[in-house]
Give the backbone structure.
Amino acid sequence: MAFELPPLPWAENALEPTISANTISFHYGKHHRTYLETLNKLIAGTDLESKSLDEVIAATASDPARVAIFNNAAQTWNHTFYWNSLKPGGGGAPTGELAERLTAAFGSYAQFAEQLKATAVGRFGSGWAWLVLENGQLKLMSTGNAEKPMPPQQKALLVIDVWEHAYYLDYQNRRPDYVQAVIDHLLNWEFAAANLAS
Ligand code: FE2
């Protein structure tokens, strides 16, 4: 059974002015779709065809012979997770348990935001900046290319895509400006809280 592209959780123009409808149109309609369609082609007729996306990722991670499948499966997963990590009117400090956990782990929301920005800006080349739960602790990490936090050791809570295709049309080379704007205006803390509780 082929994987399908999940609908965006908001309209293509809903994240403006932080991320333009033009960027979302290419990012979702071209990049995300191509990862998914390539994945479907690569697994057609193989033992992976009947697996869930999580199972395909787990089965192909660290397998050099199936790196193309892993890359396209993980990029399919990462992008769906990224769309859900953003929402119109999001960003700023969370409330409730997450606010307490962030303060305990990073000292304050401001220090967390500064470290998240540094993690995202500091990733050399293409990749992702993540808030994860690891061994019961909130932690920031970045991954290169298609790499992602791997369960059961790591549970992803939120992500920012720092591939150039995520920001180049709107910010050109100014990745720090894109990351700051996402942190201030788009992060979906309800999604992070739901992941933390799951
Ligand atoms: Fe992307």
Notes: Strands lie at 127-134, 137-144, 154-161. The domain at 21-85 is CATH 1.10.287.990 (Helix Hairpins). The CA atoms of residues 119 and 189 lie 18 Å apart.
